[in-house]
Each structure stands twice: as C-alpha cells, then as structure tokens.
Amino acid sequence: MSGKKIEVIQNIFDENDRIASIVNESLEQLGILVINIMGAPGAGKTSSIINMVKNLPGEKVYVIEGDIESDIDTVKLKELGIETIQINTNGACHLDAPTIEKSLQELTIDQPGILFIENIGNLVCPAEFQIGEHVKMLICSAAEGSDKPYKYPLAFEKANIILLTKCDLKAYVDFNDEFFLRGVRALNKSVPIFEVNAKTGAGFQEVSQWLINRKN
Amino acid sequence: MHEMSLMSEVFEIINQTVETNNIRQVKKVNLQVGRLANVAPDSLSFIFGILAQGTKCQGACLMVEEMPVTANCLTCDQEFHGEGFPLICPACGSRETYITGGTEFRVASLEVDEEVKSNN
Ligand SMILES: Nc1nc2c(ncn2[C@@H]2O[C@H](COP(=O)(O)OP(=O)(O)O)[C@@H](O)[C@H]2O)c(=O)[nH]1
Ligand SMILES: [Mg+2]
Ligand SMILES: [Zn+2]
Prior knowledge:
The complex is a heterodimer. Chain A is an alpha/beta fold.
C-alpha cells in the first residue's frame, strides 16, 4: 500500500461564481440592473441608496439590505416606500451568491428596474464574492481619509463606479483630494468618481443619471 | 474573516474527491492561494484541523502554496508579475493593467493512502 497523489484543481469560488452568473442572467432577462454596494460600516451606503432612489422617479427600485444583525436600515427604507428585504448574515462578513439567490425568492419582481444590494459594511471581503451584480459600486466617505485606495486596493481595482460621500466633511477631516485621486487612478484608470453629500443631496442626480445610462 | 466558510467549501471538494476515489486516508491537502485572495494561511490551518476531526482528513497536513500576482498591460499587452500596488508594466511603464492571477483559491491536489483490497 503506497501513497498516491490525486490532482483536483478545483476553485473554491467556482460554486459561488456559478450561482452568481445564474442570478446575473436571470435578473438581466427581467430587465433588472443589479448594483452591489460596498463600503466600510457607516460610509453612507444606506444614505446613498435613499438619495439615488429620490433621483430615479421613473424607475422601479428594489433593495436587498445586508447586515450582520438588525433591520434598522430596512425599516428606514420601507418607511420611505422603497420595496426592501432584509438579509442578516449572523456574523458573516460578506454576502455571497447562494444567499442572494435564496433571498430573491422573497422578492416579487413585477417590473424592470434597478436592484440595489447593500453589502455588509467591510472594505475587504465583499470585493471577492460575486453576487450576481452588473455593477460594483464602491462607497467611500471623505471621513475615512484619503489613503483608502492605498490600503484597500482590491475594492478600488474592481469598482465600476465610486461615490465619494460626506464631501461636506472634507474640510473638517483634512481630506486630500489630490492624494485620493492619485491612489484611485493608479488602480483604476477610468472608473467614474462622483462627489456627493447626502445631507443636501448634492451630486446624486448625476449618479442616478449614470445608472439610467448604464441600464439602457 | 471568512476562512471558516471557505474551508467548508474546501471540505465539499475533498469529500467529493474521497467519494469518487478509493481513499482510506488523506495525508496531505495542497491548496493554492493567491496573494490577493485575502485569506490568512494560519487561520486556514487552524480551521482545517478542527473540521478534519472524525473525517478521512484527520491528521492530514495542509499545504498552502502562495500564488503570485500576475497582470496584463493594456497598453503593450505585456504579461508580468506584480510586486504590490499600483501595478506598473515593467515593459512600458503603463499603469493601465488588469489582474490575471493572484486572487485564486483552489484545491490543487490530495495525497492519499488508498483502501487496501483484502483477498481473504
Ligand atoms: N455629514 C454627512 N453625513 C452623512 C452623509 N452620508 C451619510 N452620513 C451619515 O453617516 C452615518 C452613516 O450613514 P449610513 O448611510 O447609515 O451608512 P452605512 O452604514 O454605510 O449604510 C449616518 O449618521 C448618516 O447620517 C453625508 O454625505 N454627510
Ligand atoms: Mg447601512
Ligand atoms: Zn506595457
């Protein structure tokens, strides 16, 4: 009896990616543009969703809220009349495709439109898991500092659109525009960056217009 | 910290392999983990030890091969090894590149003892 080597070569992400492409294609057929919203806790993900929706009067909007615990954001969105379902990951640091596929059974999709999926607040793990999205939106707040592209390169590399939120706070946190921009551009030459302020709604009209153009 | 859920996926793959082969004991599991996969090898080994208990992997050794970052240049089409961010093409200096390797995480192979066929 001797030892034997068995070649396997199987990717751990294969199963996730397989389900992600099923989600991606089936929603595309229904005319749904899926946005995976990623960013640190408190970066302004929920506030951005609210402001984007305000600027999408002609679109049907659906939201899936991912949080480790609680349904605070879902309650907030529902109060505004936005169709929202909640996922609690009970500790998991990211959403994955099987979780989204399962939660979609709770969502009645009766019209084409835009589905926002708010990922778990975390700049590292969500960037690695496809969840069926057509667009990866990175939410980065001025309050986090201008060095984030240098410290979390993968999230910036993979983003299809970046929202720099809390621009009203720039002056208070010594935000260095030039340093931030240089960091982003080194990783992602052409990603559009929108500067926004959820307090006043400034900048969100342009973001929503970008989404509409991307969808059509 | 999603090493736990990833390791469960590793065990799915191992179990499938064990089922379809004539394996008595797994001695070694070879993983390939990209430098950008954001997976900590130490916690992988720790979790592997726990999940292996009572299975054909109990006592097996987990080997993690770190895979380099590779990229392709959009300007001159050069393929190169990346040494951290930002990725810069060594041939033409362009920063317009895309990652081609270094985010992978896979089970490469298993080293096993096969079931002994007894004839008596
Ligand atoms: N000053 C300022 N505060 C903001 C802005 N956007 C969000 N906030 C605040 O930041 C906190 C976290 O926002 P939230 O949208 O819940 O972040 P999330 O955890 O990423 O969903 C809340 O107290 C918001 O009121 C902004 O543009 N300016
Ligand atoms: Mg939120
Ligand atoms: Zn080049």
